[in-house]
Input
Amino acid sequence: MRFEPDAALLAFAEQVGTEGPVAAEGARTRWDTGGELRPDTRLVHAPAGILEHQPEEMTVRVRAGTPVAELHAALAAVGQRTGLPERAGTVGGALAVGENGLEVLGRGRVRDTVLQLTYVSADAKVVTGGGPTVKNVSGFDLPRLLVGSLGTLGLVGEVILRTNPIPAASAWLLAEGADPFALLDALHRPSAVLWDGSRTWVHLEGYDADVAAERDTLARLGAGAWEPVDGPPPLPPHRWSLRPSDLRSLPDTQAGAFVASVGVGTAWVSTPQPARPVPPGLARLSARVKAQFDPSGRLNPGRSPLPTGAS
Amino acid sequence: MAIVRRRTNKSTVDPVVAALVDAIGADRVRADAAERALFAHDASVFERGVSGPVCFPGSTADVVAIMRIAVAHGRTVVPRGAGTGLAGGAVPLGSPIIISTARMNRLLEVDVANRVAWVEPGVINLDLSKQLRPLGFHFAPDPSSQQSCTIGGNVANNSGGPHCLAYGVTSQHVLAAEVVLPDGEVVTLGGVEAEPAGYDLRGAFVGGEGTLGIATRIAVRITPNPPAVRTLLLAFASTHATAATVGAVIAAGIVPAAMEVMDQRITIAVENYVHAGYPTDAAAVLLAEVDGLEAGAEICAKRIAEIGTEHGATSVHLAGSEAERAQLWKGRKTAFGAVAQIAPAYYLHDTVVPRARLAEVLDEVYAIADRHQLLVVNVFHAGDGNLHPLLLFDRQEPGVMERVHAAGAEIVSASLTAGGVLSGEHGIGVEKREHMAAMFGPDDLDHQNRLRRAFDPACRANPGKVLPTGHSCADIQTLESVPTGVWV
Output
């Protein structure tokens, strides 16, 4: 059946309106991502609230203004969670930014978490893509296009997300001098392997016996003692996106202090990532997408998911 | 074998064919009526296609050349993999140039450090997993057609398969694609790095059913083979008990690698066909597989057996060896072939419903088939609510196709009413495009059309697919009409 917007969504569409520059404000957790918002931009706020959690379907319908912490607290009460990063502010903000959580190896990518996504378009229409079930290939994948688009194609109002069971056991372990690349091969699906050039943090999740077996595997690798710790280390401010195999040479780049997500390719570094050139063909295609969805350029002006000047 | 239609008077040769031969070579272009007829249909029941010249490019440069000729001559194109699609996605409408990926079938690079394999689009799904096996990896999506379907086709249809329950469908396993856009420009969408900059055009492209361009190189995620696997076969006296067991397993916080259900009619056919070891007296069987580390796999297998018993399973059997596991899966994977014992033809449907509604929608499917005097068998991905009713028929029977299509439409409608969706893994193609308006409103479809137009402003690639009539790219007459009498 077609998605029917409720009164809150319709009110959000009315707030967005059809005239003038506009952006949705969440918790401002990643507010400066993708460029500085044009100062005359009017700020609007997506509705908040968890609408429907179906634990046996492993889905949850939630409004975009809902804090991720609130969503995860509600889901945890029945032993579930989503792939949205714990550090995110609101659900809508997390989806607009599209950055994966620290434990992406274990929990999956943010873009794979979204089953259905409803947004308000540049001409104040309520548009829905995807579907309510855990598997769906009906029509073009508008949800994936919107995730990470920084609100430049539409402003997210409501989504249906996939949920996952919270594993029975969880352990963060720390060792000095281990080879994080070797242990990634030795372990079966660790949730995170972090490395700062000398220390390695590993997050193991699963059944108690599985986590115990993985700890034995770590011990057998013989890289010193693994000590239990409370969680991941503090992360430097700048997020780099690299190929997983590029992380090994990160210490040689003189980029400064870093924490790298081994097997993923994300690194948090004390200096910004050098600009990466955008191929002109990709810039042209991206510009055509933007022009189709927001012909007047009123959504989040000043921001672009491509590096500045590209589109 | 005649490669290109040749006449003594060269001026009567289709100028498009002449240009294609000139660009990519005579051995890569076929234009005889008999050979074009081979490409007029795919594995679906839709047969109204008319194929233009058929091209077999060997490289990205060949695909670019073909696309430029299509642009210059105002022709449309249809990308084609193995033609195993069941929604008519590869059926040529309006005499397009067919771009077959059959000769672009090289595994280019296995990059274990980044857990990526670069492949050409014509690589066969199962061949890729076989080549990765010695390295301890596989490609997770495993459609039933995996012995013949291609990775390019998997990308176009965002294909699934039994093991997508735990591992996700194709979109989760495609990191990047080099794509020839319908205007001939080559772009790389996505990337091997953690978070490629820009819009997720890779995500938008996957599942585009060949309407957004043609992938010429694809970076797929390779998945480590699990250290432990347990495969169970549970038999039940009713489909309701089977469906309830599936729901209870998920509700217990277990995400199996696969949970497949087969009803009695298909179970009997499969047993006759490959002797997989299925009990033929059960109303339905559940094939469940869990994987992971040794202890967790053991815990999950035990729990599934308990849940099955609590729901009245008449037998619970754990595969005792790799050979037995392979035999159980052989039964599931050959189910569609086994159907030939019951009827000469089938129409395989594909919808998804919430898991909690599985049993009641199955009842409805049986009732719909009865009303239309058709036999239906069910073999499906129960774990994610993905129904696959097979309507069985004999084309010789007058009027049977009308009944088959009417029953199919009712199955789609019953699935949507239950809170489901049009397709779980086969796509929309021509089969379900007129159903799109039942799931999406005019603004939703308008925005899907905008995505399409951003990639393909001229509606050149695979016109007449996915979007219903009334949206610009749904109209196959968008481009210049084909010269009278040529190729139609």
User: Anything to note?
Assistant: The longest helix of chain A spans residues 280-293. The first strand of chain A starts at residue 22 and ends at 24. The two ends of chain A are 37 Å apart (CA to CA).
